[in-house]
Amino acid sequence: MTRPExxxxxxxxxxxxxxxxxxxxxxxxxxxxxxxPIKLELGLSDTQLGFLTGTAFALFYSVLGLPIxxxxxxxxxxxxxxxxxxxxxxxxxxxxxxxxxxxxxLARMGVAVGEAGGTPPSHSILSDFFPERSRATAMSVFSLxxxxxxxxxxxxxxxxxxxxxxxxxxxxxxxxxxxIAIVVPLLLREPQRGAVEGKVRAESGRVTTLAAAxxxxxxxxxxxxxxxxxxxxxxxxxxxxxFPSFLIRTHSLSPGDVGAxxxxxxxxxxxxxxxxxxxxxxxxxxxxxxxxxxxxxxxxVIAFFAFVGALLASDLTTTLLCLSVLFPACYAPVGPLVxxxxxxxxxxxxxxxxxxxxxxxNIVGLGMGPQIVGLLSDWFANPLGxxxxxxxxxCTAGAFPAAVYFYLRAARASxxx
Length: 417
Known about the structure:
The protein is an all-alpha fold. The chain has one domain (10-191, 208-414): MFS general substrate transporter like domains (Growth Hormone, Chain: A). It contains 18 helices and no strands. The protein has helices at residues 10-33, 35-42, 46-72, 77-95, 101-115, 119-127, 132-143, 145-161, 166-187, 209-218, 220-250, 255-284, 291-312, 316-331, 334-343, 350-384, 388-394, 399-414.
């Protein structure tokens, strides 16, 4: 089989992009552990916190992700990833200088502008280094950046926030990413599109964004995977955005304690879940084409009970045990989902298809999830008192069964496709 015509080895490419994706989530998630100090200093409501951790980011991330992905299907993807990393890192550092809610919201929108150019080109690059037989595992390793970034973001952010120095945490995270952006193009080279599958000549044409969208809608497997992924993202972003505040308010933990606990639970646990999801999917794929969808459905069932259990538990130990199950279950389907979408997409439109997936997932998940919880929490404040956040989060638990339903539809559509 033909190898990608690039001086970068597949393992090095995966490592570099994993580091970039880790920084993506450090800068994205660090604000969740800093939410309480930020709320205190700037005098914010939960609705405003929901906007900062969700809507402000999702609006620009989702809208700009698609045209940047389209550009990545035509231009140098490594350069796009490098510029994206430099942009979001700079805006993260500027977030630490914000003096008002508006300034912080604008800075977070700037972070989203940069991060919109990170993931779709990375998915496309990795698909040109790893063949289908090992793609789910490779994508799962890449997806480790999410729990790894969560680990470092929560751990460092929680420690720094202990003294209400949330500004220092944001500036430190931003400058680190900017420095690494200088190194990326020195280590990573652009691979030849489709070479690893021997399809360079067969699929060298262009596919428009509209044509890619039509393919996604008309393909029963892709359409259901897109919707399932959106509901899964909704659940995951609600958990990431609000469980730190839930533990601080309900169980009276300090930001430092929450950061340390969730760094291990969401970071290490999420990494284990992501790896297992990809490995199980690649092995199961040898037996049935339903593998990615089945991994997603099983994970959704487990995550639902863990999510509800964490919120209803009366003691901290049970809550943490449930969270230790929740985060691995949330991350297990990510690699199989991305791999299935990339494999079923035209080679000339893989970044665009990834952009479409992220567009839907982030509008539904990141844009709506944290914001809905914030609105409900403020609404429940008078009738429910200190339990307002608990029941606001419980109201979103139905997204888990919805994800399971569409994963099962994708599994049925996989037969004979």
